[in-house]
Amino acid sequence: MKLYTYPSAPNPRRVHIYLAEKGIDVPLENVDILKRENREPAFVENVNVMGGLPVLELDDGTHIAESIAICRYFEALHPDPPLFGEGPRGVGVTDMWLRRIELNFMMPVGMVWIHGSPLTKAVMKQQIPEVALQNREVVERYYRFLDDQLATREFIAGDAYSIADIVALCTLDFATQLNALPHDPAQQHLSRWHAAVSARPSAAG
Ligand SMILES: N[C@@H](CCC(=O)N[C@@H](CS)C(=O)NCC(=O)O)C(=O)O
């Protein structure tokens, strides 16, 4: 088994944090996104037809791409501690928040990245600056929404740390560090949550 990865990128980072929370060691093979190694024909043809990272290679040669699919694979093998919720209610609520974070937070940050960053300009056929600007506003609204939500509970999906926190942390740090789109430190509940999840040893890697 091995994980093809580029650890500092937000989607691979989700898997690294998840594995650290579970205490699971997986051999790594770094693939340099900046050198476009993940877009070389050998990688696309043999590892991931979509070209993205991370990808988990199993010993029988199966490839599982998509960061959340990789985490779910490990969750099935190592259910404790539960990071996708516990019991039918917990699983449902955690999945609801995971999907909200992916669709309503990561997606607009991704739009800012591909339409607004000088780092993606060379690979985008056409950047549309208005799309980046509109999505910056969507993200700023989402920060306000998350701040309100976190006023009533400790973590994104409830009182237990979960995959929703992992994805939200990677998204917020990606927005802040690579898209110059930080949250307002005066958003005290979001700031409290961010400090707490960042202080976990899993977030350091
Ligand atoms: N939905 C996929 C997204 C994979 C993805 O887009 N990964 C990025 C890194 S964060 C990537 O490989 N970018 C370089 C590229 O697409 O060429 C997942 O969750 O794993």
Task: Explain how this protein is built.
This protein has 8 helices and 4 strands, in the order E-H-E-H-E-E-H-H-H-H-H-H. It has helices at residues 10-22, 41-46, 67-77, 87-116, 118-121, 129-149, 163-179, 188-199, and strands at 2-5, 28-30, 55-57, 63-65. The protein has a 4-stranded mixed sheet, with helices on one face. Helix 4 (87-116) runs parallel beside helix 7. The chain is globular. Glutathione binds at residues 9-11, 33, 38-39, 51-54, 66-67.
Proportion of residues in extended strands: 5-15%
Low-confidence stretches: none
Tally of separate helices: 8
Sheet with the most strands: spatial strand order:
2-1-3-4
Coarse morphology: globular
Query: What structural category do the secondary elements indicate?
Result: alpha+beta
Major sheet summary line: 4 strands, mixed
Q: What is the typical, i.e. mean, pLDDT? A: 97
How many β-strand runs?
4
Order of helices and strands: EHEHEEHHHHHH
Distance between the termini: 20 Å
Radius of gyration: 17 Å
> Bound small molecules, which ones?
glutathione
Approximate helicity band: 55-70%
